[in-house]
């Protein structure tokens, strides 16, 4: 017995050893990194990673979806980054923005895209910047410690006067992708696109280095204001442009419903008469007629006879009693006030409506409790 158990144990150990050798020879541990979807503020704020990075560097950062100069309270030394070309700013707001830059602010904005067309005064018209007509859109640059070049792709711009820029990346024929110009005591940085600063792009080394180069001069001088949805039109404009796609079908459905239900419109009809209980109404009318004809004693006598008939069938001993003995026996059995029983059995004059009502009600109550 012990020998068989030993042989079985050895066989199990051999099988385990063979399976372990096969597992180690054919399988190995692999670490797989899978990007997760954005969560929280990162889902709608493309500059969320940039804001966290600047805060980690000790900078004061404020992020907002819209540009509100009164709310921002820009001060000299602050940096305002407009992630997309600003729209909807009045001429007074543009003058206020450029006046802040002239006092020492740093404005970073993306160049106008090909579809950025408006008859109103914009910040680009004040700066003398237009969209380049060249089809070349990408600027390649080599980041530090990188072997492959990084591309900066976007709509290039053409300035009216190149001399006002401190530096430019590109050429006059193909347009420019990056540039920085002085404006009073401040400066304005223009890029063909600022998408290299969004949450996805900042994961790469090249976009991180380019973002740092554009923001390095502003570090430690003031607050950073990151505006990530400057191209959103006012609410009334969005409703005017897009709400009709919902309101027009809803209006058509409402008109169709009104036409369908139009046959019910008209004067109100009287409600149909409810079902009538003719026998009950007849009995009620007969009782009222007899009472008004001073025949209340006949009605009382009829109810009293019904009560006495049931009393004789249900309690012959009590029915055999008379006078006060019968009253007390009924009161003990039904728990009704003896005075009410006396009044019900001998009510006296029944012309008074209350006296008649209480007498009849007491007789019916006594009859129901037998």
Describe the model.
It is a single chain. The chain is of the alpha/beta class. The chain has two domains: 41-232, Rossmann fold, CATH 3.40.50; 281-369, no CATH class. Helices cover 45% and strands 14% of the residues. The chain is built from 14 helices and eleven strands.
Total strands:
11
Tertiary shape: elongated
Oligomer: single chain
CATH hierarchy class name of the largest domain:
Alpha Beta
What is the helical fraction, as a range of percent?
40-55%
Largest sheet: 7 strands, mixed
Give the number of domains: 2
Helix-strand sequence: HHEHEHEHEEEEEEEHEHHHHHHHH
CATH topology call of the largest domain: Rossmann fold
Mean pLDDT across all residues, rounded?
Answer: 80
Which structural class best describes the helix and strand composition?
A: alpha/beta
CATH architecture of the largest domain: 3-Layer(aba) Sandwich
Strand sequence of the main sheet, in spatial order? 1-11-2-3-10-9-8
Distance between the termini: 92 Å
Low-confidence stretches: none
Give me the secondary-structure topology.
Blueprint: H1 2-26, H2 48-56, E1 61-64, H3 69-72, E2 79-82, H4 91-102, E3 106-110, H5 123-127, E4 129-131, E5 138-141, E6 150-153, E7 157-159, E8 165-171, E9 175-183, E10 186-191, H6 205-215, E11 224-227, H7 235-242, H8 244-260, H9 278-292, H10 296-314, H11 316-320, H12 323-334, H13 338-345, H14 353-369
Parallel strand pairs: 1-11, 2-3, 2-11, 3-10
Antiparallel strand pairs: 4-7, 5-6, 8-9, 9-10
Helix pairs in contact: 10-14, 13-14
